[in-house]
Amino acid sequence: MRHPSSPRGSLRARSVARWGAVVLFAAVPSLAAYFGTQQGPGSHQAAGPHQAAGSQLGQGTMTWALANNDNGRVLGPIAVVGDSNSVAPWFTPGWVEMAERLLGLAPGQIVNTSIPGATAGPHPELPLTKSGPTILDQALNAGQVLDGLIFALGTNDISYGHDAAQVKADLDELIAEVQAYDSEIEVFVALVPPLVDPVVNASGLQTEIDALNALIVASMPADRVIDFHALLSDGLLGTEFTYYNDGIHHNALASALKAQAVVEVLSVAYGLPVAMKLEGGK
């Protein structure tokens, strides 16, 4: 962890130095046991038991690899500025908490200032508390010196009528604010997930999401982009089983996949000996 009174030094050198060689492996028993019974948006359900015995996820096994430097925490803090799909109010844990555990961080080391309805830019018709600049300010002033910050915004901006170019400009302003605040905070941007509701897609919103994602990919270093869009686009572990009926909000399986993607990107960016994968089986 970086401290205000200490020079930061090389990101990779610091990360490698503070990670130990101990890697612990555990298998998730099942989504039902791990997450508890899912309910839709607006519902609240207590989390299920967190078990460590191996079992199957359908025909595959989810393996989590945790790294820890003796008894010390190894990375963080990191902030997340996102919308309802990062808050996950209708099941626990969400992808933020899962990624935190996988990285071996203490609870709260990923500072999640996400809020339902959040947007990258200010919208006059929305409460100020939902705007990206306000949420980012909360993340930067949460009393911790950040190692990294993840933006997971854009769905609501597009839904509320902003085009791709405007949303990208709003994201750029947020990134510039982070860099002005502390140039050593590593910034990551998650691509906007697809909207799978046919009515929503018929309105052309998915076209704007695709355009926004293309702009993000074109302007960000590849190792700073977290591809939530491809992850949830299609296939067995795509839209068929990862969305609630509203076609917008992600369920517990989606959160597991998103946590996997986040950990993989952070592992590469920080040079961390962490691995997590969903292995399919026959």
From TrEMBL:
Residues in a coiled coil are none
What the entry lists under SUPFAM superfamilies is as follows: SGNH hydrolase (SSF52266)
Residues forming the SGNH hydrolase-type esterase domain are: 81-253
Q: Which GO terms describe its molecular function?
A: hydrolase activity, acting on ester bonds
**Short name of any one Pfam family annotated for the protein:** Lipase_GDSL_2
InterPro entries from the xrefs? SGNH_hydro (IPR013830), SGNH_hydro_sf (IPR036514)
- This one is known as SGNH hydrolase-type esterase domain-containing protein
Question: Transmembrane residues, as ranges?
Answer: none
